[in-house]
Amino acid sequence: MTTAEQVDQIIGKRVRLALAHARESVYIPLNPKPSSPLAAMVGLGNAVKLAQVFGGGMVHLRKDASERIERRNAEMKKAAQLGATQRALAKEYGLTTRQVSNILKSP
What we know:
The chain is mainly alpha-helical. The protein contains 7 helices and 2 strands; from the N terminus they run ααβααβααα. The protein has 2 domains: 3-62, no CATH class; 65-105, no CATH class. Helices cover 66% and strands 7% of the residues. The chain has a two-stranded antiparallel sheet with strand order 1-2. 16% of the residues are buried.
């Protein structure tokens, strides 16, 4: 499970996306106070919930688009393993064959 998925389970995807829109990374204090920046962004209750899991560290929040791209790339790799051509994948996903080639080569 990704960090973003964990955060979604704790505070909800809508709140995580709002937080990710404001900041890509956020510090989670061990004991959030009402005056902490995190509490101001997500509410004290949500800040406390996050602190129980991530307290004392940075959490890197991904925006929804990067999650979609990762899923798309995984689907493309699977389709290629099943015999789909780069040309067919490029047409299906609205990409160039070079972009498809680079995605298929990526880890």
